[in-house]
Design goal:
The chain has one domain: Rossmann fold. Helices cover 28% and strands 19% of the residues. The chain has twelve helices and nine strands. α7 links the parallel β6 and β7. The chain binds beta-D-galactopyranuronic acid.
């Protein structure tokens, strides 16, 4: 295999030109907001064809069952609810376990943050009432540890990334699902997880990868939330970190029911511009994670400038809904500057709708958040989700959701 060069030198970023989100493929300009839905449909189709792959539009039936409800948990702050969403395809089924926290005191249906987690719902909080997954979980099976005890010991392991109490105190609910319930995060030739619900021998270049599968699962979770009286499903913010930040962006781009979209350190294949080739590149991501994107994406490994889209257009697909792009100063692998420039390049589409976008292409100072309808910050520190990030998301949601 060729050596994959990773560049961290700004002076070595190649000269690039971004595709213009406001010019149709046939060269016509988008002159007003009325023309945007048609251009949006064109860009969405290009992302399906060349980047994430196309999800099936029908073929899986869903049933739901509430498996537990507990009032007054987390010191009286929350109602905890768990539900199993069963998706049935041609010959198999899949169970997605949703954990929902709602403020115990509510004045009607609440707006809510929805996000996938990396290693099980029980990792988001030390709450002993959260059910521990019995499905494939990363790190444990990889280490040869299969027993239930190791999983139980990871209760709360990711709690610093989920500001559960703060979210509830601010009047929002939180729903989360373990991403591996939807599709286990390894390359198995698209046999297990959601792909297994729609089995086929003839996978084509634009068939969906794992990120599209996870995003599809988020939409199914939203289908369920629409049936939950305590949740205001027209005010759901989809949020994710890193690979799950890429997923949140694609879910929000593909499904306009998500009212707000938050990308936390999503990097390559997420908010960062592919053409900059700074930090993680298209070639590196397709090599290390061959299952995340569609097969067609790999044809651009050595020629990203030939891609008919770049990631600023993924952000543009969310217009006119609000979007927040967050970077971390030390997370060079995710290319903070490339994430910012992507938000800047999506801004003309916001302006079409009369919203201020990001105008200046100078990256803001560290820890100075911008809360225009396309929000942005680069915070101190590395690849993570912190209380600073959540403080911004909550303020941004108060303003725009
Ligand atoms: C890295 C990957 C990134 C990012 C990250 C994560 O290994 O290269 O694209 O997604 O994983 O998800 O934590």
């Amino acid at each position: 295999m060729d050596e994959i060069v990773i560049n961290y030198d700004e002076s070595k970023v190649p000269h690039y030109e971004l595709p213009d989100p406001l010019i149709f493929e046939d060269g016509r300009p988008v002159t007003d907001a009325n023309a945007w839905p048609a251009r949006r449909a064109e860009i969405l189709s290009l992302f399906e064809q060349h980047v994430y792959g196309r999800a099936p539009t029908s073929g899986a039936a869903m049933t739901s069952e509430v498996t537990s409800v507990a009032e007054g948990v987390l010191g009286g702050l929350a109602t905890r609810k768990e539900a199993t969403l069963r998706l049935t395809g041609n010959s198999s089924h899949l169970d997605m376990h949703v954990l929902i926290y709602l403020p115990q005191v509510r004045n009607g249906a609440v707006p809510l943050f929805l996000g996938l987690n990396f290693a099980g719902n029980h990792t988001v909080h030390t709450d002993p009432g959260i059910t521990v997954p019995t499905s494939w979980v990363p790190n444990y099976t990889h280490l040869g540890i299969e027993d239930h005890r190791a999983r139980v010991e990871s209760r709360g392991a990711a709690s610093s990334r989920w500001a559960v109490e703060t979210i509830l105190q601010r009047g929002y609910g939180l729903a989360t699902i373990y991403c591996g319930d939807i599709d286990p995060d390894f390359d198995d030739g698209f046999k297990n997880g959601v792909h297994g619900l729609f089995p086929r021998d003839d996978r084509a270049g634009a068939d969906w990868g794992t990120i599209a599968g996870w995003a599809w699962g988020l939409s199914r979770a939203l289908d369920y939330l629409e049936t939950e009286d305590a949740v205001d499903a027209s005010h759901v913010a989809v949020m994710g970190h890193s690979r799950l930040g890429k997923t949140a962006l694609w879910a929000g781009a593909a499904d306009p029911r998500f009212a707000l979209v938050i990308s936390n350190d999503s990097g390559c294949g997420g908010a960062a511009l592919s053409r900059r080739e700074y930090g993680e590149t298209v070639k590196r991501i397709n090599t290390a994670f061959p299952h995340w994107f569609c097969t067609n994406f790999k044809t651009y490994n050595d020629c990203v400038s030939a891609l008919p889209v770049d990631q600023h257009e993924l952000i543009a697909l969310i217009v006119p809904r609000p979007v927040y792009i967050a970077s971390a100063a030390e997370d060079l692998w995710a290319d903070p500057r490339g994430e910012f420039l992507s938000a800047v390049a999506a801004s003309p589409v916001y302006r079409l709708y009369g919203f201020d976008g990001l105008i200046d292409d100078v990256v803001p100072e560290v820890d100075v958040a911008i809360h225009t309808r396309v929000g942005y910050h680069v915070r101190t520190g590395g690849h993570d989700v912190t209380s600073y990030d959540w403080a911004q998301y909550l303020d941004f949601a108060d303003k725009w959701l």
